[in-house]
Design a protein that fits this description.
- It is a single chain.
- By secondary structure, this protein is of the alpha+beta class.
- Helix content is about 65%, strand content about 10%.
- The chain is built from twelve helices and six strands.
- β4 and β5 form a beta hairpin.
Length: about 300
């Protein structure tokens, strides 16, 4: 008698509850409760990301089937998915050790920094936040985002905020914003490196006085070298974007631009080498020490 299965007791309890409801409760109320339960039981939950573990992303390569699906699962909204797809297509990104890399650019997702989690991080320094109007348009949200941006800027990050509607309905414009912000950010980094190089040049000059003026300006040479390399890199990036155009005329123009950029780079390199070769021994020692410090 006492060895009956558990489900029998649950059936008895359910039947008792049904009998009680049928006798004492209005049949219309029972019908309403059944309808409410039937509707709510099938409502899908709100969009929620199910990001793959980091060790799983680390092992993904371009040879894996549907690798992009694993990165999409790290997105927290359809707008972020649209931005991810646009970046993959625009820069030919491929998985590499848990991040996406292609055409001189790296992209990471859901990166923890301080007490925040970044939507996207480009080249370890440019943050891209995809903002939905519902959560980022109120005065409180605007103030909160401003405080967040200040905290991240103090850590050396550059922040770009793109409205969700842009990534959803005009992803090409979102890519243009990223390219412009990245170019400006790289220019500022180059200027900062040049300023540091000038400071090092002044330090070495104070440490040792030359018996005569050198035949060149080390700070001008370093700045010229930095700017020349940055312009060459920038030109190659723009050339890569233009070469994606399918027309024959554009391909011819790209080839001409490529030859011109390569020629300018070679001429600049030869000019800099000539200036280095023309240095007197004392100036050459200072130059070598300066370049060694800049390369740290």
């Amino acid at each position: 008698m006492f060895n009956k299965p558990d489900w029998i007791y649950w059936v008895a309890i359910g039947w008792t509850a049904f009998t009680f409801a049928f006798v004492f409760v209005s049949p219309l109320l029972i019908l309403q409760l059944v309808v409410i339960w039937g509707v709510t039981a099938w409502i899908r939950p709100k969009y929620k990301s199910a990001c793959s573990p980091s060790n799983e992303l680390d092992t993904l390569t371009s040879d894996d089937e549907d690798w992009q699906r694993h990165f999409r699962r790290c997105c927290e909204s359809p707008a972020e998915v649209a931005f991810l797809d646009a970046m993959v297509a625009a820069f030919n990104l491929m998985p590499e050790k848990g991040r996406l890399r292609g055409e001189g650019l790296t992209l990471q997702m859901q990166v923890p920094v301080l007490n925040y989690r970044l939507d996207f991080l480009i080249d370890d320094g440019l943050i891209v936040e995809v903002d939905g109007a519902k959560w980022h348009s109120t005065p409180e949200a605007i103030e909160r985002d401003a405080e967040r941006d200040k905290a991240l800027a103090r850590e050396g990050y550059e922040i770009l905020r793109i409205p969700a509607k842009v990534t959803l309905y005009n992803p090409e414009d979102a890519i243009k914003q990223v390219s412009y912000a990245r170019s400006a950010w790289l220019d500022r980094k180059a200027q900062a490196r040049s300023s540091r190089a000038q400071g090092l040049d002044g330090t070495f000059a104070n440490q040792k006085s030359l018996t005569h003026e050198p035949k060149f300006s080390t700070q001008g040479l370093v700045a010229s070298l930095e700017n020349g390399l940055d312009r060459c890199s920038d030109g190659m990036n723009r050339l890569s974007e233009q070469m994606e155009q399918p027309t024959a005329r554009m391909r011819e123009k790209n080839e001409a631009d490529c030859k011109r950029i390569q020629q300018e780079a070679e001429e600049k390199k030869a000019q800099l080498q000539a200036e280095v070769d023309a240095m007197d021994p004392e100036a050459r020692i200072i130059y070598d020490r300066l370049m060694k410090e800049c390369g740290k």
